[in-house]
Amino acid sequence: MTTLPTILIADDDRSIRTVLTQALGRSGYQVRTTSSAATLWRWVEDGEGDLVITDVLMPDENGLDLVPRIKRIRPELPVLVMSAQSTILTAVQSTQRGAFEYLPKPFDLGELLSIVDRALKQPALAAPVEASKAPEDNLPLIGRSGSMQEIYRVIARLTTTDLTVMITGESGSGKELVARALHDYGRRRQGPFVAINMAAIPRELIESELFGHERGAFTGATNRHIGRFEQAAGGTLFLDEIGDMPPEAQTRLLRVLQEGEFTTVGGRQPIRANARIVAATHRDLRVLIRSGQFREDLFYRLNVVPIRLPPLRERAGDIALLAQHFLGRAQAEGLPAKTLAPEAMLRLAGYRWPGNVRELENLMRRFSALVPQSVITEEIVEAELAERVSHDQAAPHAGDATPDTPQAVERAIERHVARLMGEARDKGEDGVLYDRVLAAFEEPLIRLVLGETRGNQIRAAAMLGLNRNTLRKKIREHEIGVTRRVG
């Protein structure tokens, strides 16, 4: 008779223990639960259990401290860590201390059951390593929304690898912060972090900036110049706005990624490339590929691990946390202490933030410096946002309807399609317009509908009028992360 796997659960929340016991029991597992780390440790020492699920904050011990102890005496025992703290540091420390997986609360039961099944089939054998020493009050990324939790988990998984990463997201959403987190928590954190913005460098100088040049390589090259690849040796090279890289530089970068070495401009001696590559862009590289502006082979070399950073409007639940963080940072820099009234915070959460996190940070700094009273009221926020909205509304062409009306939306779409038509006409390209228009509007449509249905793909397919398999195919094509959440 086959013995059913036993799951050991430690969490001081009775409702969590009950939900997990019922879900795991229905899936065919034996379950033992406790509210204390001490009891869990005793079970592990006695050789009980095939898998552990532990909370971080418990009355008698921090669950993160328990993980390396478990792995030392039973390295084959998979450990899943849960936490309502939900910070990037929690995710990274869970992974670095030997946890098989990290789950933020609230979690998806289907996802948890899938992880349990995978962990029991492929037990984690990695020994714990020293955790990052980054302090809790100086975290590079702030947010506890579901989308940010997934980013934390991806970063945590990448801390022991040098895989190339592609970060996509709107301007101001924090792409460089993600790149820095990948570096600061990764195994190259003792090396340099070197950033270069492709959009900020003249096209004719990009190759020299990336790879360096020899004396006399071109007019004005009076000395040897060390490029960013050499500067980043042993560390991380962040290629920001990679979509603006000119074709000739794309070709040289592809060769470096393929061969692992490069030569300086005007040089003959190959130099070994020893930097982890993290790229970022706010542009749709697939559209650029179809229009011949970006190499498809380079895209696949860079897009080994894609990370989509959501705009702030898609994670409104993080706005209060971010606003308080930026006010605290301003105070630490010597500006007067400020707090936000609850009504003011609600007004901030209702704004669309076209400038994303950077816009919110700048507004909090402005409040800290210019508002005389210590409490920022709803009226102050309303006045500031009203001025921004009126400025944004003045931008469209004369004769446009009021923003967000059907007429305004229709005209905005017409302008975008006309722009795509002009680009195709200027380049003499036929047969591409339909695909480009679809690419421009299909992805945001699917994301919005999945958000409305809380990740329920059956309901989303019904709303869209699509076959469920068709929807799944499009989700894969656009690399849309879908998580159906409970709790």
TrEMBL record:
Q: Which domain of life is it from?
A: Bacteria
Q: Name one GO biological process term.
A: regulation of DNA-templated transcription
Q: Which InterPro entries match?
A: AAA+_ATPase, AAA_lid_NorR, CheY-like_superfamily, Homeodomain-like_sf, HTH_Fis, P-loop_NTPase, Sig_transdc_resp-reg_receiver, Sigma_54_int
Q: Where in the cell is it found?
A: Cytoplasm
Question: Which keywords annotate this record?
Answer: Activator, ATP-binding, Cytoplasm, DNA-binding, Nitrogen fixation, Nucleotide-binding, Phosphoprotein, Repressor, Transcription, Transcription regulation, Two-component regulatory system
Residue spans making up a coiled coil are none
Recorded GO cellular component terms are: cytoplasm
Query: What residue stretches are annotated with the Response regulatory domain?
Result: 6-120
SMART domains noted in UniProt = AAA (SM00382), REC (SM00448)
- Residues modified as 4-aspartylphosphate are D55
The Sigma-54 factor interaction domain, residue ranges: 141-369
Pfam families, per the entry? AAA_lid_14, HTH_8, Response_reg, Sigma54_activat
Primary location class: cytoplasm
Listed GO MF terms: ATP binding; phosphorelay response regulator activity; sequence-specific DNA binding
**What this chain does, per the record?**
Member of the two-component regulatory system NtrB/NtrC, which controls expression of the nitrogen-regulated (ntr) genes in response to nitrogen limitation. Phosphorylated NtrC binds directly to DNA and stimulates the formation of open promoter-sigma54-RNA polymerase complexes.
Question: What protein is this chain from?
Answer: DNA-binding transcriptional regulator NtrC
Q: Which organism is it from?
A: Acidiphilium rubrum
Whichever gene encodes this chain, its name is ntrC
